Amino acid sequence: MTVAIPTLPVGSSTTITLKSSAIDQNPYLGGPVQRVARLGDKWSYSVDMRPMRSSQARPFIARLLQGLSEKVLVPVIVSGIDLRGQTDVTVASGAGKTLTFTGSATDKTEGQFFSLISNGVRYLHQITTISGNTISFLPSLKVTLRSGDVLEFAAPKIEGFLEGSEQGFTVGMAENLGLSFKVNEAQ
Fold first, then answer.
1. Buried-most residue among 2, 47, 166, 172 (CB within 10 A)?
2. Is the same domain home to 130 and 171?
3. Residue 114 and residue 185 share a domain
């Protein structure tokens, strides 16, 4: 089961980080450094919510505590991009870091995040280039695309596990300091 975290309150601060699985090989006798790119890059998403009333904090605390043993699904805040008019579309074909979709390419922009839903699991990606209904993105696909897979542009989400094996939240601290958590994308 996946625990859905409610929409983050206005004023929340988020940091999204891409963790590369590439390694650098440094020859110990000198020579050029070689970077070996491997599959498996993934995102992490840190959230710092502003101070909130206890009635606002309780649902977040309950869901975050549930998230200790379950995957969590967290909305990704997309600043500076107008998501009005954005629609989810269906994948037509793709491989690696490129895919073609059916539906409208209107208003999709470079740097925009989207979720690929394949076999009931979400994978977060970021558009690097767009040309009509074909987009390039990063990181590489983690699954084989199937007809009917969906791309969420209007409300992208990250699906993963909360960092750490224990979480402590108190309603009183939420009123004074807010709540913080970090999600690491599941593979």
1. 47
2. no
3. no
